[in-house]
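The pair is listed for reference:
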Amino acid sequence: MRIDVLTLFPRMFDGPLGESIIGKARERGLLDIRVSNFRDFSDNKHQTVDDYPYGGGAGMLLKVQPIYDNLAAIEAEQPIEKKRIVLLDPAGKPFNQKMADDFSKEDHLIFICGHYEGYDERIRSLVTDEVSLGDYVLTGGELGAMVMIDATVRLLPDVLGNNTSAQTDSHSTGLLEHPQYTRPAEFAGMQVPEVLTNGNHKLIAEWQLKESLRRTYLRRPDMLAKLVRTPKMEKLLKEIEQEEKKA
């Protein structure tokens, strides 16, 4: 996969995109990330990228020309490859795990990081997606792009050491992930549940499903409303409801 990022602050990406899982994926040739400063594409001698809005209003808007020319340069370099162009915008569609999964199936992603008050509306005609990290406003789109890139890249084949890890993560299954434990089996009076140490894989799988349902029931009941439930899940949920009432 190739990922391009258009930003006014390229150095913000040096650490997050060069370390850990993403850094290793780049080293192994699984991922090509390129960060460009769209100020370099401004067509005036002062390299301005923003201007006052027509009709008045607070703040400055990003101009269409530098971003248009930056995208054109990428297109000239990769004219055949289909591109998905993502505009980071508080008014966009909320980012979620399904969107990360969709992005991971693309060959070429481009993220445009906004700044200042907003965008010249014509920039929106250049993109395929307008996406928001959540219902709040950041100084710019850079942090949002980093989050989306991280969530996407970890779903690429062979990026994680265990390819099943991403499949069982919270949100990937429609549920929050069950509690997990490692050695020692007892620490400061706190015990690992006995079912996890007995080697019975059927019982372990049932415990994991039940505790995943329990955690979702307690913390994110809104997710249960969207979940396609099996008869076994319904049975376990009834048990959980009774258990939590007694707790």
Notes: The helical segments are 20-27, 64-77, 97-104, 142-153, 201-219, 221-226, 231-246.
